[in-house]
Amino acid sequence: MEDSLRLQSFDQLPSAAQFASQIESRNVPAVFVGCVKDWKAVSKWNPSNGGLGYLEERVGSFMVEAMLSQTAPVFYGDLRSHERVPLPFSTFIAFCKWHRQNVGNSCSINSNSQGHQLEESDTEQGCSPFVDAAPKQIYLAQIPIINAENEERVQLETLQEDIQLPAILEEKNLSSINLWMNIAQARSSAHYDPHHNLLCIITGRKQVVLWPPSASPMLYPMPIYGEASNHSSVALENPDFSIHPRAQCSMEYSQKVTLQAGDALFIPEGWFHQVDSDELTIAVNYWWRSSIMSSLADHMDAYHLRRILRRLTDREMDQVLLKGSTPTWRQESNVDHSLDQAGQSKDLKRKEQEQHSLLLHELRPCALQALHELVALVHDRVNASDQNQPVSSDSTNGLMCSKTNEQDKTLTTEIFHLEEDPVAKNLWILEPGIFKDIFVAMAHNFPRTLEALVLHLLSPVGAEVLTRKFDEIDQQNTEENRNKFYQIFYGVFDNQFAAMDAILNGKESFARQVIGSMEI
């Protein structure tokens, strides 16, 4: 877990301005210890203080929509795993009373839980006098106290008198305030919310495991087109790592916090969270739209989507290349680097003046060795593709390359992983100056080898590496020197546009493959 994503803890609520500028804007979770302990609800709703009777008296038999799950004590967000059933609030309270009398305090969170294991409850199923379902299968989840988006859904408005709007939310445009109440020990599946969330514990205890949005690939979110796209598809009670292998590493990206009665937790939008609740835990949460989401205009959605996909693609391409090989630049080993650095500017100027006439004997030993290896790789790849093609010398210096038929386009390889392509792997470890010298030397001495490499052997990952090396050269050279280099490089080809197409098509193919493999 990066330090910048670490959960913050505060002993008191900051001001609304401090919260907005120092906490909410960072989009990192924060816990506020004891910040709602003075609410009336904390004392009046407590089952140990007659809170169940109080709640029954306040709400009565008002109909609420309860979650009934066949996978309890785990509650999944997917509609296939649960159903929403209308239930008089008084009936739910009767469940709570029955459970408290018959089970006592035998259920509690396993504080050593690693996010994928849950202790078995001692509650026996099928012994409720009210319905066929066991009490632990029923959960009041997201029951509206206030709902700005749909006032008709408000079911528990009468409870608003017992809670107070936290000072940090006074200037927020709230979407809803909701009640969460479970009878027996319960766990919600890992999911994220599309709103900022302030979770306030009234009674009981909750343990929350948090993952940043960047850990999404480890949690395998449901398909974006699905009804539960914000939920992880990893089974919590019995994860199958053969189906979800990355989930084995998910806890490395997580952090855990235990919330007691009176505490509150800020969960930013997009953060995955899995919540374990002790029996008879009651909580209230506040949802509000983030400033980023509030400022998004509908007509800009397609643009923002493209920008985000581009950012994700660039980041994933970086990861693919870094996984394949550590980009340790290949340099001359027996050189006094202090003298080498002192002479770099003079050497660069000389290269700019003499680049067009660079000969093999002028190459540094490490560059000459890398050139020999690169030409040999091209030679071997061409020969492996067609053993029947004649091999002829590409120059008088003895480095050989297959002469390829101009119409034969079958040699191009569809390789997307750096470790699978020796040509791309060799280019990746070259320092920009050596890379430039090698290709200038190839253009002058082995033009057909360079032509075969670009037009027939350049894999998608090879094209990506090649263009990245071009970028490094561009950053280290003057405009005049850059132009000379590209004139020499592309001057080898009878059709310069065909060479550019081969490089750009390979680069785009690599990006398409990365996009297709991304887990979002």
List the helices and strands and how they pair.
Blueprint: E1 8-10, H1 16-23, E2 30-32, H2 40-44, H3 51-59, E3 63-69, E4 74-75, E5 82-88, H4 89-103, E6 138-147, E7 174-182, E8 186-191, E9 196-203, E10 205-211, H5 216-219, E11 255-260, E12 264-267, E13 272-277, E14 282-288, H6 291-295, H7 301-324, H8 337-342, H9 344-354, H10 365-385, E15 391-393, E16 400-402, H11 422-428, H12 432-445, H13 447-457, H14 460-476, H15 479-491, H16 496-517
Parallel strand pairs: 1-2, 4-8
Antiparallel strand pairs: 2-12, 3-5, 3-6, 6-7, 7-14, 8-13, 9-12, 9-14, 10-11, 10-13, 15-16
Explain the overall architecture:
This protein has 520 residues and is of the alpha+beta class. The protein has helices at residues 16-23, 40-44, 51-59, 89-103, 216-219, 291-295, 301-324, 337-342, 344-354, 365-385, 422-428, 432-445, 447-457, 460-476, 479-491, 496-517; strands at 8-10, 30-32, 63-69, 74-75, 82-88, 138-147, 174-182, 186-191, 196-203, 205-211, 255-260, 264-267, 272-277, 282-288, 391-393, 400-402. It folds into two domains: 6-102 and 132-295, Jelly Rolls (Sandwich); 363-376 and 414-515. It has a nine-stranded mixed sheet. Strands 4-8-13-10-11 form a five-stranded mixed sheet, with no helix packed on it. Helix 10 packs across helix 12. It is elongated and about 95 Å long. The chain starts with 7 loop residues before the first strand and ends with a helix. The model is unreliable at 105-131, 332-346, 351-357 and 388-412 (pLDDT under 50). This is JmjC domain-containing protein. Residues 329-350 are annotated as: Disordered. Pfam families: Cupin_8.
